[in-house]
Every structure is written in structure tokens, then in C-alpha cells.
Amino acid sequence: MLGRSPQTIITDQCRILQIAVGDVFPRAYRCFSLSCIMQKIPVKLQGLFEYEAIKAALHRAIYHSLRPEKFEAAWKDMIQRHGIKDHGWIQTLYEDRKRWAPIYLKEAFLSGMFSFLQNEVSTSYFEGYLDKNTPLKEFLDKYDQALRANYQPEALADMDSRNSSCIQKPRCDYELQLSKLYTNEMLRKFQTEVEAMYSCYSTKHVSADGPITYIVKEEFEVGSNKKDSRAFDVLYNASDLEVLCVCGLFNFRGYLSRHILCVLNQSGMQEIPSHYILSRWRKDVKRSYVLDHSCSGVDIKNPVHRYDDLYKRIVQVVEEGRQSQDRYKVTLQTLDKILNKLHLVEDHQV
Known about the structure:
Blueprint: E1 8-11, H1 15-24, E2 29-32, H2 34-45, H3 51-63, H4 68-82, H5 88-95, H6 136-163, H7 173-179, H8 184-197, E3 200-205, E4 212-222, E5 226-237, E6 242-245, H9 249-253, H10 258-266, H11 303-321, H12 325-349
Parallel strand pairs: 1-2
Antiparallel strand pairs: 3-4, 4-5, 5-6
């Protein structure tokens, strides 16, 4: 955490765990994993009469509600229509709704950690390494194994993003702008919003003071030959370059939604404001952590090991070189000589 407490912590519906997390991180926003809750539906509700209808109603309340009052109305209709008002698990879900229902979590900054779309399943970072039966004496070893296993592909993906781009022909200025900043993985996710932006159109509702409200209608296919649309409110404050969509995608995912892109494009904005481009998604971000390979040794055939080993050594050079003007000059001269030698090696390889 780099010495800072987390803003948000997502856990399963476990009272004991919630108490423990609250004691250790009292200021963190604590919420439940929606993905875990949805996986429990067959276990908790399978035996009920009209199970499929209840499941469908629950999905509609969770995933189709854009405002709290819509969620409340849909939930009330569900429990009354199917006579499940006194069901224990349903009651517990409702009591805890502000900790797991997407409509109540839009103010929390979750940035890709929370699965809020229908049929979306989140995968645990430690899946295959840690579970509830892991003995305490094995926990640290398994934890370290998981970190190393996930670090390798992430580091390789970072290197690939710095050396190449997954985009060939940008479809708009926003795509071109972020192709120079985002990692390839994040750019692919953002491209989904860019593509869907062209299925949106907006009408402006002028406000006398403060932000302008746009009603953005998004068209989507229903079945093979039918189309439907859905309206989303977008608030745009041109003076402060602030924009907010009722869908809450930025707080959920960490990048702007198709509805906001539609409004910015209609307003003549050629670039996305810098405060909506998170440093965590940038390919030029400097990593503040490097895995220690000293125990297992550096594998010079492994590009990640090479990078980490050189990175640690160059940081030491920087620390020494910055201490005085003389050391700084010697460091620059030495680095220039190293670069010249490296260029010669590359020339020989070519």
C-alpha cells in the first residue's frame, strides 16, 4: 500500500471479517463482492417456488436500476409478487444493500476491483493458491507464490505496452490520445466504450446555473432484428471540466463511459481531461515495487528478471549520483559510455 491505507476493501458477506477489517482499517469503505453474492443465489434460493422468476426479478433490480428509487421499487415488487418477504437471506441482502448493490456504490472509487455487470465474474488474485482451508504455516509461502505467478505476465504485458500499440487506425481523437498513454490491456477496454459511443446520441437540457444536464440515449440490439434504447443522465460542467454519468462507469472501472464520450464529443472537446486519465493505467508509470529474485537467482534468459535486476542497480546509481555535482557529472559520463556500448551491441546483433 506504500504506507497508505486502502480507500476501499471488498470482502465476502462475513460478519467476523467485516468486524476485523473495520478494526484495522476504520476509514476504508467496506463493501461486499457482488460476484460472490450472485454465485450464492442457486444455493440460497434454488428450492423456492418460481425460482427462475425470482432470479430474473433479482437480476433486474440489481443490474437495471440506475437510481436508488428504481432499485427500491423493483425489490419491493419482487418480494411481494413472489411472497419472499420473510426469507432470511433475502432480508439480509436488503439490509446490507448499500454495501453490495451497484446503485449504492457509485460514489465509492472501485476502479476495476468490483464486478458490477450482469454475467461478469471476478477472479480472485490468489485463486489456486489460497482458500479457506489453507493452514497458517503455508499461508506466507502460498501468498508469495501467487504474487510471483501474477507478477510475471503483468511485467511482460507492461513491456509489450511500452514497445508496441494494439491500435492501428484510431477512430476518434480520444482513442488516439489514450493510445499514447494507456497500456494495451486498458486501451482494449476503452475501445469498447469508443465503439459504443457511436450508438449514443444526446439532447441537451440547459441549466441556468451550474452543470448542463444531457440525456444520452444508447441504442442496443434486442434479439436478432430488434433494437431498443435506454436513457442516461450526464452532468457536464464546462468551466471545471467535470463530467458525471449516472451509469457510474468511471468509479467502477477507472475510465470514461460511452455516454460521457458522446457528451464530450458533442461539446467539441478534442481531448479527455487529464484528471480522468488515471496514472495506474498508464504505460509510462514508474513502478514503485520490484520483486526480489535474489533467493532463486536472476535468470538472464527471462526479460522480467533482467529488467528487475537492472532497475534495482540503476536506482542505486541514481542515489549515489545525486549526492553532489561531481558525482552527478561522473554518473552522466558513465551512463553515456554505457549507452554507446549498448548501441554497438545492438548494431552487431542486427
